[in-house]
Design goal:
elongated; 8 helices; MetI-like fold; about 220 residues; about 0% strand
């Protein structure tokens, strides 16, 4: 098959529509993963042993099972119990839950790096636990871990093609749809690789800028 540049340019607008869906899933999945991950990290430091063990068990289970299986479970099994969500919502939740367990470990490392004297000073000032976390711990724990959190965001971006398996027309899904129509796979898949490369490079630059900004503060 001869590579046809004009055909690739012709299908670029179509694939860019799928790229928008890819970006939406990545951004929403990252927000969900960041929030859930922080919650898991805090629960993992609970004074109650049962809560700590249950949180660790959930994180181990999610991290050690394939994302694709989790996606299929949410999409095909939950509707049998009356929980039917749109495909895009299901895919975003699957990404967020899966990567929240990895981000939780990053948060854990950042929280553990906060000097013990800072915790003791917060207790000495009679701060509530909420004030201690929001004013003392998290402002010191989060800036150093931004690069690691950003790496997981880029990884999530590259995992979004799995959403095509449940019918979501993200970037790869749109490319496969077009290829199935024309029986030309060379150009669509090449363009998918180029767009993912561009997105990944832009994400890396943005993460670096964010890291520098917080480091300056």
């Amino acid at each position: 098959m001869i590579f046809d540049l004009s055909y690739m340019l012709q299908i670029t607008p179509l694939l860019l529509k799928g790229a928008v869906v890819t970006l939406q899933a990545t951004v929403l999945g990252t927000l969900l993963a960041a929030i859930l991950g922080l919650g898991l990290a805090i629960l993992n430091r609970s004074r109650f042993r049962l809560v700590r063990h249950a949180t660790t068990a959930v994180m181990m289970f999610v991290r050690n099972t394939p994302l694709l299986i989790q996606l299929f479970f949410l999409f095909y099994v939950l509707p049998q119990y009356g929980i039917a969500l749109p495909a895009f919502v299901t895919g975003t939740i699957a990404l967020g839950i899966h990567y929240s367990t990895y981000m939780a470990e990053v948060y854990r490392a950042g929280i553990a790096a906060v000097p013990r004297g800072q915790w003791e000073a917060a207790y000495a000032l009679n701060m509530t636990r909420r004030q201690m976390w929001l004013r003392v711990v998290l402002p010191q724990a989060i800036p150093p871990i931004i690069p690691a959190l950003g790496n997981y965001t880029v990884s999530m971006l590259k995992e979004t093609p799995l959403l095509a398996t449940v019918g979501i027309l993200e970037l790869l899904g749109m490319a496969l749809f077009e290829a199935a129509r024309t029986y030309r796979y060379y150009e669509p898949l090449t363009l998918v690789g180029i767009i993912f490369l561009i997105f990944s490079l832009i994400s890396a630059v943005l993460i670096r800028m964010l890291e520098k900004r917080f480091a300056t503060r």
